[in-house]
Each structure stands twice: as C-alpha cells, then as structure tokens.
C-alpha cells in the first residue's frame, strides 16, 4: 500500500494509553548484521532490461577499491549482492596535492539499476519527490568516515564525485552496511520445495518480509515506512509461516486498537514517529481487517490477554461496518469510507466489499465464540442474510459469475473475494473459479501483488492448485526473471515497466504486500 | 588570496616537531556568541544592485515566524543583519495531516543577496563548485531541530522547501547561529574617527578581520579556509592595531616555520586539517614575507623566544632568496618561484620583486641586530647593492618612474613597492608618488584589495595623506556603498560585478586581505 485517499483533517481520535503502552512494550529490538559489497558495477542502458537499465560487472575490482581514485564527474557503483535495509558508511581519503576545497558527493541508494540509471531530476509524479533515495554531502576534511545518518533500502550505492579540485582526487575504502530488521532469516524453518522457481520465489518472499519487519511491519523500507492495516494482515500471515515473530504483530494490533476515532473507526494506517499517530485515511475493508489480523494472531498464538484487550475494539468496528449495509442486505458504497480491494479504480468494488464483510464477520464470530459473547447469534444471522443477498442479488446465474455495482460489472476481484469468503459451497467455488479462469484470465489492468495474492488464494481455496501455482510463477516468477531481489510494490506482467508514479526512482521494490507467496507455498504446496 | 599556481607533487617537506608543537599549543579557544535573524527578507532582481540582486523586507514578520507554513517550492530567507561565521540551527515542525513523506530542504548560506539570487547550478568556473555554500537535507521525522554540522560564513540563509507532500507543510522557529572567532570586537580599543565613512570602513575592516580569525588567520571563512603567508602579514598588522591577539600570530609563524621544504623554502600557504600540511605552492614574495611577519610580531610583542626559534628559518629563507639575484644585482624571474604582487598577470613583476626583497632585507637586518648575527654587515651591503641596482637599472629618470622587465614596463605596482621599500629618500618618494598619481591614476585592472592596500600604504608612506584617504574612500568606501558588511576578496571599482570566477556564488565576500583600512586609519590618521 502506498496511496492515501482522503484528507480528513477534522477527525478526532482516542488515544488509549493502556493499549498504546502495550504497543510500546512490544517494540522489537532490531537485529543487525554487517555486510559488504560483492562487486563494483557499471549501470548501463539496455532496452530489454527492467526499466531500461542493468548492472554489469565493472573493470574495477572490489578487492582493489582503495587503489582507485575518482575525480570530478566520476562515479563508483557498489553492488551489495542482495537487497539490504540499513545504514551505510564508507571511508574516504584524498589523493594528490593537499585538499584545497571540500569534497562534494552525490549518493544514490537504489533497489534496482534503473533508480541509478534514470536521472532523478526528471521525476514529476504526484508522490513526494522527497522519497527519492539520494543525498548531497560536503566533506570539509579528508580522510574521514562518511556515516550516512538515515536508513536506506537498497542493493546498489552510487557515489558520484560532484567536485574536488583539479589538484586531488578521492579514494574510497571499507564500504559497509549495518542492516536492520526485527527478524533473522536463520529463524525460518527449512522446508522442501522441489520446484526451483517456487523455491526461489519463497526465498525472495522471505527476504521481502524480513526487510519490511522493522519497529512495525513497514509498507516498504524505501518508501512509506508507516504501518498499513490491510498490508499488516498479509505480512502477519507470511510471518506466521516463516519467522513466526509474535511481538511485532502484537505491537501492531495494539497500535491500531489504541487509536480509533471517537466513534471507533480504525485508520487505514498509522505513523509511529515522532509518536504514534493514526492517519486521517479510512478504508472500509482495511478497517475490517483489524478483525482478521486479531483472529489470525489468536489462531497462531492463543493469546487470550490480547483478545480480552482488543475484542471490544473489534466488535465496535463490526457495528460501524454493519451500518453501511442497506435494507436489502447489500453494502452501500460510501465515498467517505471507500472499499479499497485494489489500486485500480476501473473496477467496481461493491461485490468485493460485500464479500470482505462476510469474510471478516466469519472470523469475528470465531472470536465471539472464544469470548462467549451473548450477541453471537445476531452475527451469525447477519452472515446468513448478507450471504443470501450476495447470492440472490450479486450472482448472475446465466454468466455463472458475480456482478458488481449498478452496471452489473463482472470483474475478477468480485469472484475472488466471494470465493475467499466462502459465500458459495466448495463445489460452487470450484466452478466459479473455473469460470473465472476461462472468462477473466489472463488478468490485466491489475498492478498490485496485493490483488494478485487474493486471486492466487482464491485458486488454492477453490481447488485450483495448478492454476494457483501457475499464477504465482507467472506473476512473482516474472519479477524473479526480471532480477527481483525482493518483490515489488507494483507490477503489471503485461507492462513490466509500469510505475504508478511515472518513474522507477520513486517506486518501492521491496514492498510488504508482495511477500505472500511464502505463505501460499507453505500453506498449500508444502506437506 | 585564493589562487594556487603550481602543482609540485614531488616536493619534500621537513616537519619540525618542536616548532609544530608550539603551533599547536597556541590554537586559540574560539569565542562563541548566539545571534538571531533581525528580519525575513525577499531577494529580488535589481539591475542597479551589486551583482543584480538585493534583499528587501518581506511581508512576513520575523516575530511571527512560527505562524507561517511553507509548502513545496516556497522559500524563507532569514537576514541576520550582519555578517556571521558559525553554526546554524532551526526548529522545524509539520503542519496539517501526519507527515507521510520526508521533508526535503535546500539551504543556501549567502554573504550577499546575489548568492541566493543567482542559480548556483549555472556556475561553471575553474574554482571547485564544492565551495558553493548550499546543502540538501532530508528530515524523516518532524518536529526536529536541524543543526547544520558545517560552519558557514553568511548574513542570509535561504531555506527552500523542495518537497513535503500535498497533505502537510513545514513551519520554522528558533533560528539561531552560534558564531565562532578567536577574538571579540569588544577587545578593540575605541578611537575617535570623525569622518563617518572612514569610521564605517574601520568597523567593516574589523568585522572582516574578526570573522577571518579562527584557528588560523583564514583566507576567507566562506572559501579557502587555509592560511596564506602574504595575507597573514596584512592580517597580523591589522590585528596589532585592533584585537592585538598574540597567540594566533604566534601559532601561524610556527606553522610556516615548522614546515619548510628540505632546502628551507617556505610554502605560500598551509593547511591545518586533518593535520598541518604545507601546500605545494611557492611564491617568492610570500616566502619572504615570513620575515616581515616575524619582524612585525617582534616589534609588537618583544618575544625573544620565538625569534630564537625562528631566526634560523628566516635566515635560510633570505639565503635562498638571494640566490635568485643576478650578477647585476637585479632579481631574475623564476617561473618555479614566481613573484605574486597581485593576481593580475598583465603587469611585469620584476621591479616589484626587487623592491620586496629590499623591503624584507631591511626587516631582516633589524632582526639580525637583535640576534647579534655576525653576518649583519653582509646583509647591509646587499641592501645597498640591490638598492643601487634598482636606482641605476630600474629607474627611468626621464619618466621619473620605475620600469620593470625587458619591455621597461611602467606600472603602479613597481612604484608602490619601491616606495614601501624606501629605496629612494623621502623627498624622492614623495615626488615618485606625485608622478604616479598623475600618470597612473585612476588605477584600473587591479581587482585585489591586497594591491590596493599597498597603493594606499605607499601614499601614506610618501606624504600623500589626502590621496591615501581618497583611495581608501573610493575603493573600500565604494564596497560599503554597495552594501558590504565585510570587505571582499575581489573588487574592481570600474567593474563592481567583476568576479575572478565568473559568478558571485563562488566569490568570498569576507576576505582577510581586504581588512587593512583599520590598520592604515589607525596608523596614519588617528592621533
């Protein structure tokens, strides 16, 4: 997730100190590792490469780095061999006559070669250019160690010498990154995955998740460091299948639960610096997913205390969500609390929203049973009513597919969410997805791994395992083929260079909501 | 001084640990003062203003600074009311929705309005662009205090908001500069100067000197922080007349004396960071001025111990300088050890060099007397020989002026230095400068306050007090009229916008060698 949809400055929020204290008590102690570049590379144009640029091995050898000197206009590109999140430092010295002017450097931190290859000054998109991972640095005295104070997310570092003087050059040595993450890959259980591409996809998924697991589950460590609720749901599921870190999910649940609006609505995302602040953005499905995260967490850790703390918040959310239902038991679309489902605004989201509500209500009922809530039968009835309305009003039996909105639009999202919500029985679900594959595949116009995840999930949930594997391979596998070290925020297989922002320099190439194949593989494909 | 002339990488230097230890023992403890901006200004084009830009009072009030918020592309220019050298800090906060992207700022520190008005990216001169006093800064979390780690030399600070996001703006508060100098203006004796322009010139001279007196006498606090020997000579004289700080001159003498070449030659300048390093640039007159600085220092402080330490270095320098004299007792020009005199290479410098050698030899003889050196009569004879040769070979009695070089060029520098060296008697000197004023004034083609100082000095030394005052007013006074808070590295009255580098963004507008009017005023004009 990266987009924000609403500016609701007038919104007032509760800050439940008790819950937020528990959020703070679960800030993980970050783990650090020191890593070093594996080679020096040159970034060159290649029209067949992702976004038109690729990294090739330089004539310069990393072992001899300190022997090279760089003058005005010259560039050094270090390749750390894999994606990393952390702090960069490097030693610099002057070579030649005494240093008669400051050293002036431009540093670019890049997850992919194109972020170096593309001139960042050409970026003119709507997302803040302040996310471009570049810095200008003056150093008055060499030798020195340049320790970059900010954390970056990158594989490549370009250091361009903007100026020295004609009398001296700069030499570099001891580049090093101290990585940061709440988790370590060595904590992930080894599993047998025979298919080499699936094995690779599993690894890249885990690396993606690791690099997004910081003091919260970050959206992306390069861009949008905040915690999004719908993304948290997927990250937490992937986490249970791999690192199985408890405290970070717990922290994130308390953050959302501790800061609802005065009426009880949960923000789509929260910021945690300089202090915990909920964003003034609300999305219907994201608010509801608080219940999903709580349910999945409870299933995994059987932690009654968090359920006792947060069940009232979850119940309030359900009550607010149900107010959006019409007398016909169909979700009314409300532009002040929109249904997200996917970035695309070309698809109608009513049927998806209806399905998501049913999906979440079923999870809520399981929690209500755990809490022995007296209202439980009321919720069960509502599930029945909503499901019946979905089948009666939103299923086109001629087409064999769900329709959505006033124009009776047939789209992939509606089918997928109805399957995930198990509105139909298993045979019907199988048939629905057979039909969906026939009619709606190959998927086009969808750029988010988030939506692709739900399509793959629906295939697995409806007995289309082979199609599920094929989708994983054709989507995430294509990113691997294009050189992904971590999975990307946005990817359209039919247009690999698509950027929602018009430039790769602002794209995030390690984005949490893309990490789910490890969850799907380990849940549906590994014994 | 700013220029460097030679790249002599092969040169080997002695490092006399005993002398350098004394240099280090005399590093001054810097004095600090906290200052605050007096107003918010706008920088606007004005073809009549210095370099085409001036600062006018903004509609925004400095007292209400924190009430204003700034979005992408907006700028704040703070005016501290006078020149300052030090560290800048300012508090920042975000206004509006939660901060969903880093803050990205561009800061420009400017001694004059044009350094903000002129787009720094247009600079294409030969001097390193790394001197341009601008920074780009990302701040991940607001509120914060932005403390700029580097020291700047400036009156104005422009903060341009490169980007925030559409959802929030930046507000600023508590801008502050902690100034740095080895000296304080309150230590300068008050003197009566009736003429308001001379009084102002005296004040600006003192401010210039103060801001250049750091851990060495700096060339300019904006650009070229190193210590130049010929410039030290003038700064030290101005210092004796004002702050009268002993340790800083002492430190600088030990720095030059402690790091001669293997044959004993003294560099034109030294660097002191990361450690003391002599530059590989040598100028005949600058090397000789080591003796001048030592003599002036001894006259002022009667410090026998430094004379005992450094007399051998001075004597060695004289011996090396005398090797450059031909059998005709005229200085031979040596491109490996050129005579500087002035930046201009359009003037022949042989006669000036001859005069400077005589001038310095006379100072050396005074030191030799103090040291009771047995060789003293040899040096006196040499002075006589050199003076006789100057009068016989370099004075054109028809013209009544000194000539220089194979083309018998008549230039102002030759007359001035012959006067300062007192090669002629007082009446002849008076006549020479009368003739010089008639024939060679108004001075053109000279851009350095350094050369203008010597012209003014020659006028005072030859009984042309009124002409001296007039020159001070027409040169330094014109800078004051153009808005100088401190005196500039370079100024051609006939072309006020002249820059030796092609752009004001790289010019130094507080440059030590321009601070001498306070010396001239206090020596020749104040009772």
UniProtKB/TrEMBL annotation, chains A, B:
Q: What Pfam families does its record include? A: Bac_rhamnosid6H, Glyco_hydro_78_N
Name of this chain's protein = Alpha-rhamnosidase
Residues in domain Glycosyl hydrolase family 78 alpha-rhamnosidase N-terminal?
A: 37-178
Task: Write down the InterPro entries for this protein, in alphabetical order.
Answer: 6-hairpin_glycosidase_sf, 6hp_glycosidase-like_sf, Bac_rhamnosid6H, Glyco_hydro_78_N
Gene3D superfamilies membership: 1.50.10.10
Residue span(s) of domain Alpha-L-rhamnosidase six-hairpin glycosidase:
190-521
Show the taxonomic lineage: Bacteria, Bacillati, Bacillota, Bacilli, Lactobacillales
Q: Which biological process terms from the Gene Ontology are attached to this UniProt entry?
A: carbohydrate metabolic process
């Amino acid at each position: 997730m990266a987009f924000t949809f609403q500016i609701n400055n007038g919104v007032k929020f509760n800050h439940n100190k008790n819950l937020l204290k528990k959020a703070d008590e679960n800030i993980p102690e970050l783990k650090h590792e020191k890593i070093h570049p594996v080679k020096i590379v040159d970034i060159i144009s290649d029209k067949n490469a992702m976004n038109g640029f690729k990294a090739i091995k330089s004539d310069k050898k990393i072992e001899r780095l300190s022997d090279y000197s760089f003058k005005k206009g010259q560039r050094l590109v270090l390749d750390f061999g894999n994606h990393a999140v952390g702090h960069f430092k490097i030693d610099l010295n002057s070579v030649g006559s005494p240093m008669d002017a400051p050293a002036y450097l431009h540093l670019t931190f890049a997850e992919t070669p194109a972020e170096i290859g593309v001139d960042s000054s050409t970026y003119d998109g709507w997302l803040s250019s302040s996310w471009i991972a570049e810095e200008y640095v003056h150093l008055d005295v060499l030798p020195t160690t340049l320790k970059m104070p900010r954390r970056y997310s990158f594989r490549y570092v370009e250091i361009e010498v903007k100026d020295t003087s004609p009398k001296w050059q700069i030499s570099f040595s001891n580049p090093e990154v101290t990585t940061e993450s709440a988790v370590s890959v060595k904590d992930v259980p080894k599993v047998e995955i025979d298919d080499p591409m699936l094995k690779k996809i599993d690894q890249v998924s885990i690396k993606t998740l690791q690099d997004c697991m910081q003091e919260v589950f970050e959206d992306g460590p390069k861009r949008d460091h905040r915690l999004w609720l719908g993304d948290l749901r997927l990250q937490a599921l992937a986490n249970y299948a791999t690192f199985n870190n408890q405290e970070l999910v717990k922290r994130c649940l308390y953050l959302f639960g501790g800061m609802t609006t005065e009426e009880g609505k949960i923000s789509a995302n929260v910021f945690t610096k300089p202090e915990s602040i909920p964003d003034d953005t609300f999305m219907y499905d994201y608010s509801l997913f608080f219940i999903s995260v709580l349910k999945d967490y409870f299933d995994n850790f059987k932690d009654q205390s968090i359920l006792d703390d947060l069940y009232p918040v979850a119940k309030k959310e359900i009550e607010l969500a149900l107010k959006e239902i019409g007398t016909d038991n169909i979700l009314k679309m409300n532009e002040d609390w929109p249904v997200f489902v996917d970035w695309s605004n070309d698809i109608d989201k009513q049927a998806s929203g209806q399905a998501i509500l049913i999906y979440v209500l079923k999870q809520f009922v399981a929690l209500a049973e755990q809490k022995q809530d007296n209202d439980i039968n009321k919720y069960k009835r509502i599930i029945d009513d909503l499901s019946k309305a979905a089948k009666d009003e939103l299923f086109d039996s001629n087409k064999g597919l769900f329709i959505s909105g006033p124009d009776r639009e047939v789209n992939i999202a509606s089918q997928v969410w109805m399957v995930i919500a198990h509105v139909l029985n298993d045979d019907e679900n199988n048939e629905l997805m057979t039909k969906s594959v026939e009619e709606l595949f190959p998927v086009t116009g969808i750029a988010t791994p988030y939506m692709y995840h739900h399509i793959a999930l629906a295939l697995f949930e409806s007995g289309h395992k082979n199609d599920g594997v094929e989708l994983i391979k054709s989507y995430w596998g294509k990113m691997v083929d294009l050189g992904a070290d971590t999975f990307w925020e946005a990817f359209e297989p039919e247009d690999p260079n698509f950027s929602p922002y018009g430039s790769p320099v602002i794209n995030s190439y390690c984005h949490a909501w893309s990490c789910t194949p490890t969850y799907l593989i380990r849940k549906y494909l590994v014994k």
